[in-house]
Input
Amino acid sequence: MVTVGEQAPQFTVPKAGGATYDDIGPLSLSEALEAGPVVLAFYPAAFTSGCTEEMCTFRDHYDDFAALDATVYGVSVDLPFAQNVWIREHDLGFPMLSDWDHELVDSYDVALESGHGMELAERSVFVVDESGTVVYRWVRDGENPDFETLVADVRAAVETET
Output
């Protein structure tokens, strides 16, 4: 289990940028950290109500993160093509990382069995500072949180580190 104070597991995964259906390119954590702190917001599945609400809340507060030089990435096991459609459908305005091979959910220990024989991402958030250290970790326990409160807590964690 990845905890606060540990080095974040490194990765390179497809990044869905959302500009077009095939707006896809690789992104490594080390590359992302060059621009500042990184927020990894894991969600179970695109096009579902709770996940849409969560990512739209991050969208609505994206400028708050940008003001702190932090970059938010949604992370799910969805294929990047589907993520691109979802980004455009909800004007999310920030990239999604496709963990289709489950590298991130396994290495960050946030795999969730769906009950349909599929492994999804547990709703969770990690903030990684520029040195690659996890400085904030939240994993859903029970029902979905109030997303406004969750995003405010994540922003506060980023602000503390900048």
User: Anything to note?
Assistant: The chain has one domain: 12-161. Helices lie at 29-33, 49-60, 62-66, 80-89, 103-107, 147-161.
